[in-house]
Amino acid sequence: MEFTASQIAGILEGEVEGNPEIAVHKLSKIEEGEAGSLTFLANPKYTPYLYRTEASIIIVNKDFTPEQSVKPTLIKVDDAYKSFSKLLEYYNQVKNNKLGIEEPSFISETAQYGEGFYLGAFSYLGNNVKIGDNVKIFPNVYIGDNVTIGDNSQVFAGAKIYSESIIGEGCVIHSGAILGADGFGFTPDEKGEFTKVPQTGNVILEDNVDVGAGTTIDRATLGSTVLRRGVKLDNQIQIAHNVEIGEHTVIAAQTGIAGSTKIGKHCMIGGQVGIVGHIIIGDRVKIQAQTGVGRNVKDDEVLQGSPALNYGDYNKSYVHFRNLPKLVSRIEDLEKNNGES
């Protein structure tokens, strides 16, 4: 698909400086720009590339003034980075705007779906599934019985959504994600053998939740595992049964959250964080990568380490950790000198 500079400026509410009819058909980084590509300049350190890139169109800030002649057509906007992000979103919408039902696929007679629906080949829709308008379900997706999916959501290839799950509007579930598998619930008997505890709850994603590729979210034992509005999950994250994650919290890859833990709003959790079960983490908490959290956490705390320490305390302590060999050597020298005296 091709877009002209004037069309792009219309989408971004920008001003064209150069040829308004020049067309592009792909996106690129400014340092790798080729003829027919569109890029952007937001970071001043990349300005030298502006004068030698082969890109056809460049999005720049309105206050940018070139210091020498520029070959590409410029589109001037209030914020080049945000505008380019908006364009990427628009591009994805156009690219993924597929329609219709591909064969072979299975749709239960009791399943319902709205307008603008797309179902990729080899997908399965179970009994009493309810799907809103403009939902896109890509090939090899499994949707179990009684699942609800809201308007404008996307489920990418190979994802699995178990029965009773509720997906809100504008959600994105990436390839290989699994929602609603059984929680890790077993109880030991008198012989020391483990018996499975039935997992009868479900998973609820509120609106505008993103679930990364390979991420797993377990159904609740009773009640629901809940991800509130605007939660963003990276790839390969494990969310256990009955966990609740507050609005607009973001979590990086390979984090694991054990059962029944409650996480507040606007938290930022780094990669490979481990969080024990049955604790409460407050709002606006920041947890650094590879931290192990084993206690309740108050609002606005910043944590690092395993077990987790206050971020400032950890950094002060780490100075001593690095100096331990020198300190040991000094102690040994003092002991040796005392012995000789």
UniProtKB/TrEMBL annotation:
EC class (word): transferase
Pathway where it operates: Bacterial outer membrane biogenesis; LPS lipid A biosynthesis
UniProt GO MF annotations: N-acyltransferase activity; UDP-3-O-[(3R)-3-hydroxyacyl]-glucosamine N-acyltransferase activity
Tree of life domain: Bacteria
Listed EC numbers: 2.3.1.191
GO cellular component terms attached to this protein's record: membrane
Binding partners and assembly: Homotrimer.
Protein name: UDP-3-O-acylglucosamine N-acyltransferase
Originating species: Robiginitalea myxolifaciens
Organismal lineage: Bacteria, Pseudomonadati, Bacteroidota, Flavobacteriia, Flavobacteriales
The gene coding this protein: lpxD
